[in-house]
Amino acid sequence: MSDDPLHGMEKQARRQRNYDSPPLHLWHPPLSGDIPIRIAADGRWFHDGELIQRESLVRLFASILRREEDGDYYLVTPAEKWRIEVELHPLIVTGVENRAVDGRECLEVTLNTGKKVMLGEDHPLFLEPRVGDIAAVRLDHGLTALFSRAAWYRLVESARESAGVPSVSSKGLFFPLVPEQA
To answer: How far is it, in rounded angstroms, from Cα 165 to Cα 174?
Structure first.
């Protein structure tokens, strides 16, 4: 069991952890190899073809996941770096709420890991053409999250017209919910 990469990654990740924002930008170990973890298009995580049942383990691994310039996804600790497969987007937006922050309208999204993120300049909304222009959001460490059907419908319900285009606003920015016409 000690030579199992999944067990080793979990052990490394649990050491001296900052669960909210681990310093992935400081960790640059050499590639340890590929690990048979796949994130399906619906956000479910699999190891060796078996669904990872422990949500706490998925949350832990999602907190050490990054996408690098080569376009691949890696689970990274200070000592290990394992490449994994991501079918579409590694995370899913499961909820969206309107919030007022400092007197400004903001949209807060909840990810399938439970993490909450405010849409804005640091986390912009974009449309994903591979799935019919459903919204997705850019996250830290090169990650993205696709809106679930329910979250997408809720987002569309909150849209207003801006320059003749259905849009949502957050932190003073407008995000169109339809693709630009060429």
So the answer is: 10
Q: Does the pTM exceed 0.70?
A: yes
Q: Which pLDDT does position 130 carry in this prediction?
A: 96
Q: In angstroms, rounded to a whole number, what is the distance separating the alpha carbons of residues 59 and 61?
A: 6
Contact between 86 and 70 under an 8 Å Cβ cutoff? The reply is no
pLDDT at residue 47 in the model: 97
CA–CA gap between residue 174 and residue 45 (Å, rounded):
33
Closest-CA residue to 133 (of 182, 85, 180, 71)? 180
Structural domains present in the chain:
5-86 (3.10.540.10), 91-176 (2.30.270.10)
Q: What is the C-alpha to C-alpha distance for residues 173 and 63, in angstroms, rounded to an integer? A: 27
pLDDT number for residue 21? 78
CA–CA distances in Å: residue 31 to residues 23, 35, 75: 18, 11, 10
Span 74-120, pLDDT tens digits: 999 999 999 999 999 999 999 999 998 888 889 999 999 999 999 99
Q: What residues contact residue 131 under an 8 Å CB cut-off, 6+ apart?
A: 88, 146
